[in-house]
Amino acid sequence: MANTSTPDPKKLRSRAWFDDPSNADMTALYLERYMNFGLALEELQSGKPIIGIAQTGSDLSPCNRHHLILAERIRAGIIEAGGIPFEFPVHPIQETGKRPTAGLDRNLAYLGLVEVLFGYPLDGVVLTTGCDKTTPACLMAAATVNIPAISLSVGPMLNGWHKGERTGSGTIVWKARELLASGDIDYQGFIKLVASSAPSTGFCNTMGTASTMNSLAEALGMSLPGSAAIPAPYRDRQESAYRTGLQIVEMVASDRKPSDVLTRESFLNAIRVNAAIGGSTNAPIHLAALARHIGVELSVDDWQEHGRDIPLLVNLQPAGEYLGEDFYRAGGVPAVVGELIRQGLIAEDAMTVNGRTIGDNCRGVEIEDEKVIRPYSRPLKENAGFSVLRGNLFDSAIMKLSVISDEFRAKWLSNPDDPDAFEGPVVVFDGPEDYHARIDDPAAGITEDTILIMRGAGPIGYPGAAEVVNMRPPADLLKKGIHALPCMGDGRQSGTSGSPSILNASPEAAAMGGLAVLRTGDRVRIDLRKGEANVLISDEELAERRTALEAQGGYPYPENQTPWQEMSRATVGQLSTGAVIEPAVKYQRIGQV
Ligand code: FES
Ligand code: MG
């Protein structure tokens, strides 16, 4: 239960709007308009903290829509603890609904929320998080402004079912696409199979980017312990919303800010938790962005150093078999953290929003169902984090080791002399449209030995970076039983994908990274042990190709379609450093009083 001690009114930043005798002109203006819907003067001047509820749910954002209901319980908690709730909208980001990419809107929602948190009379804020980018967008803004902030996950959907089997969000789409391509199901069957995975309100029920980012928000200490995994429709979710409302008022009283919680130790905790849960390949991008906005050093190499050798404990799709309800019943994030604490793998002193350390919150928490969360001694997979690769094609890219299937290993990683390396000729696609147009065309020349390349899909090339690096093999190979070819690219891939792609390659082709000069037919060699990815052509030839491409004006990419695409392309960084709006990073702790 939250401590509901009263904040010191003298320190509240909202006083500068509502109770500043030295600036009567403006105070009157601020007051009269916030009174016009029924707030009383003595309420606004009572010294009670004004608490924002950053509302990410809407009809356009179905994953987060349940927050419209949960907001009532957040309000109840805020009022109960002595605060005044002010709910306001955040720019919507629906992962499955936004063209060209939802990735483009993470930074837009971030910028909008920074302006709101900075420019309005807010003493603290509840961040309503859920669908993939809503969580990092909100956390990044709270980091920049650095006023007390707590995140509330909307929670996953209930488990999906089809013919007695669990169907998981996203993961079923990749499978259904293969079944459709190979003729095993028709269009109606395809839609029905995909829709079976979405039986209720909430976000993706797999360990996709949404479950990952909300689990990591909890591991970072930014949400109440045990709250990330509660399914959206459960009564516990409403209770958690109420407790979150209580807690934020206490946080304002204690002046507990994001900078007290988001330390390097908490980021390293999150990296380890990400490996243990089989988390999304989007996590390194979003955590890099968050770290930069709060001013913590974090590099892509930290993922290899601190996460790579952690085993996979959580048996959720896409790396395993279960779904969100099962994860919650098995103990959720506290059970995973509790298990990592027993191995000495968590910095227990890291502070969390409730004023206790993560050690105090999770020490001694047991796993409730070992089929769903495995004990450390019996993991699903060893060494399940991300491998970082580099070479003459890019400065860094990552590969998610927990999703390397037995089929993939048998074909590509079974050379007894060199079990960690493979090579093959590449077929290069320039963006998702090119891939969709040619993947099943025999003229593309794809065989069972081909490595598929996706470029033009980074933050500049395909504004926001498209989730397209995981590519299915052509239909004729699928019919022969070949379900996976190695994929590599400068875009992202969905957290719900079980493809062991090499992705987030930085710099991207559009920024003249090495992928820009790769050609279909070149041979590429990957060495997972050495962490290398190289095209097997000479430095001289690479330099010649680069000079020729530069003479043509560089790697071509599509025109801007909107003003924000133009501004984003002019200011965005690469995936390895968070794909942030670079000029934004220097603005830190701007809302502190
Ligand atoms: Fe919104 Fe997956 S599409 S959480
Ligand atoms: Mg996604």
From TrEMBL:
Dihydroxy-acid/6-phosphogluconate dehydratase N-terminal domain residues are 48-361
Q: Which domain of life is it from?
A: Bacteria
**Molecular functions (GO terms):** dihydroxy-acid dehydratase activity; iron-sulfur cluster binding; metal ion binding
Q: Does the keyword Iron-sulfur apply?
A: yes
Q: What is its EC number?
A: 4.2.1.9
Q: Which UniProt keywords apply?
A: Iron, Iron-sulfur, Lyase, Metal-binding
Domain (Dihydroxy-acid/6-phosphogluconate dehydratase C-terminal) spans: 371-579
Q: Which family does it belong to?
A: Belongs to the IlvD/Edd family.
- State the NCBIfam families in the record: PRK06131.1, PRK13017.1
Query: Can you say what this protein is called?
Result: Dihydroxy-acid dehydratase
Name the source organism: Allosphingosinicella deserti
Q: What is the lineage of its organism?
A: Bacteria, Pseudomonadati, Pseudomonadota, Alphaproteobacteria, Sphingomonadales
